[in-house]
Amino acid sequence: MPLTKTNTRNAIPGIVVPNASQRKRCYEVIAQLDFADLGRGAMTLHTVDDVRLDMQGRTAAGDANLAVQIGGDVCASAVISHTALIANNTENQRGVSNAAISVLNQSLDTGNNWTLTGQLP
Fold first, then answer.
1. Nearest CA to 100 among 83, 75, 117?
2. DSSP 8-state class, residue 60
3. For the whole prediction, is pTM greater than 0.70?
4. DSSP letter string, 77-94
């Protein structure tokens, strides 16, 4: 089953819209995400100045909940399905992390929550 990126069309509640320099830092911090980060518990994963990428924790289904934040406010968010997280070779893990980066970037661009579902062989 391939990976599927979905715009939930649900706006991020209380979203903060970054200014141009913050937006650049958002893209920079998102680009630092790697597959190992997706298996971590709730914590700050990466920081660029005032922008951080946080693992918010797991959903009841075991999905990874990611958020890009400026201060205490969210500007991008994505949920990565637990089925995508079981990729067991380097190439597929890179594909999952690249797809996670993509949905976070799309969330930043749209202001909506995004999901990544599916599974790589």
1. 117
2. T
3. yes
4. EEEE-TTGGG--SHHHHH
Instruction: Compute CA 32 distance to the chain's CA centroid, rounded to the nearest angstrom.
Output: 11
- Number of separate domains in the chain: 1
Q: Which amino acid type is present at position 85?
A: L
Q: Note down the domain range covering 108.
A: 4-117
Decide if 68 contacts 26 (C-beta within 8 A): yes
H or E element: which one contains 101? helix 90-110
| Dihedral sign for Cα atoms in the order 33, 13, 17, 115 | positive
The structure tokens 């951080």 sit at 52
Q: What is the pLDDT along the chain (121 residues), one digit of tens a residue?
A: 799 999 999 999 999 999 999 999 999 999 999 999 999 999 999 999 999 999 999 999 999 999 999 999 999 999 999 999 999 899 999 999 999 999 999 999 999 999 999 998 7
